[in-house]
């Protein structure tokens, strides 16, 4: 009896919120005013599929889904306090997880066999899932049909975005985090660059090795930075902090 009451109220709540959830997914998967970086990234994935003779469209679909909706949108839906200055009560957290799960299912290309024992989050939107998957498929297809973005245009767009947010981020702390990742995987990265003709044409392997040699030099080896640098918002352990800023 308790289960029947629970399911009835759950379905009523789903009916109340269904339009808002549909509007959210339609906004996320709208191909109007797609940022240049999204178009550039998706074209890169299509190009890699052709280069490596990957003819299964579900593979590229999975790349795009993992790169944008599943990595970015699902995270924001489940954690709205990352973006907004709000609290996330426990009772709301479960509702947000259902919405995030619906988005994840919409990006899937596999049809899951649902039974009465399946999670309620999947059963709630089972009838709407084909509509949501059509939104995702149309989104990827329409972006692929738009005019490609060359490297110069992409570079100009990134530079403009960087200028727009000038002074809002701590550059040296961000660079230090990138360097730690680079230092950890430097051998694999250098091997990949040496085997890529475009990277060779831009002399990226040599430039990367020069950068690593500079970072390992005595000039950048010291880490005993004064505590006053913390007040500047920089990582006090950053090896990318110029000496003249101390």
TrEMBL record:
Biological processes annotated in GO: regulation of cell migration
A GO molecular-function annotation: semaphorin receptor activity
GO CC terms in record: plasma membrane; semaphorin receptor complex
Domain Plexin cytoplasmic RasGAP: residue ranges: 1-189
Gene3D superfamilies per the UniProt record, alphabetical: GTPase Activation - p120gap, domain 1
Pfam families given in the database record: Plexin_cytopl (PF08337)
Name of the protein described by the UniProt record: Plexin_cytopl domain-containing protein
Native source organism of the sequence: Caenorhabditis japonica
């Amino acid at each position: 009896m308790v289960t029947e009451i629970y399911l009835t109220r759950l379905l009523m709540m789903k009916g109340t919120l269904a339009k808002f959830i549909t509007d959210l997914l339609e906004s996320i998967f709208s191909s109007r005013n797609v940022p240049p970086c999204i178009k550039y990234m998706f074209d890169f994935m299509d190009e890699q599929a052709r280069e490596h003779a990957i003819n299964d469209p579900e593979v590229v679909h999975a790349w795009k889904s993992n790169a944008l909706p599943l990595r970015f949108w699902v995270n924001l839906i489940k954690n709205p306090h990352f973006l907004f200055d709000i609290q996330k009560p426990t009772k709301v957290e479960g509702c947000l997880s259902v919405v995030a799960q619906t988005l994840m299912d919409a990006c899937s290309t596999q049809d899951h066999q649902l039974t009465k024992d399946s999670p309620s989050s999947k059963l709630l939107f089972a009838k709407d899932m084909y509509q949501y998957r059509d939104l995702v498929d149309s989104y990827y297809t329409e972006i692929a049909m738009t005019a490609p973005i060359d490297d110069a245009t992409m570079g100009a767009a990134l530079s403009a975005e960087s200028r727009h947010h000038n002074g809002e981020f701590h550059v040296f702390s961000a660079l230090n985090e990138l360097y730690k990742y680079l230092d950890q995987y430097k051998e694999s990265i250098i091997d990949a660059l040496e085997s890529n003709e475009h990277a060779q044409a831009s002399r990226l392997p040599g430039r990367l090795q020069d950068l690593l040699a500079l970072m390992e030099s005595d000039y950048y080896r010291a880490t005993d930075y004064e505590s006053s640098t913390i007040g500047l918002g920089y990582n006090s352990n950053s090896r990318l902090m110029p000496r003249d800023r101390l």
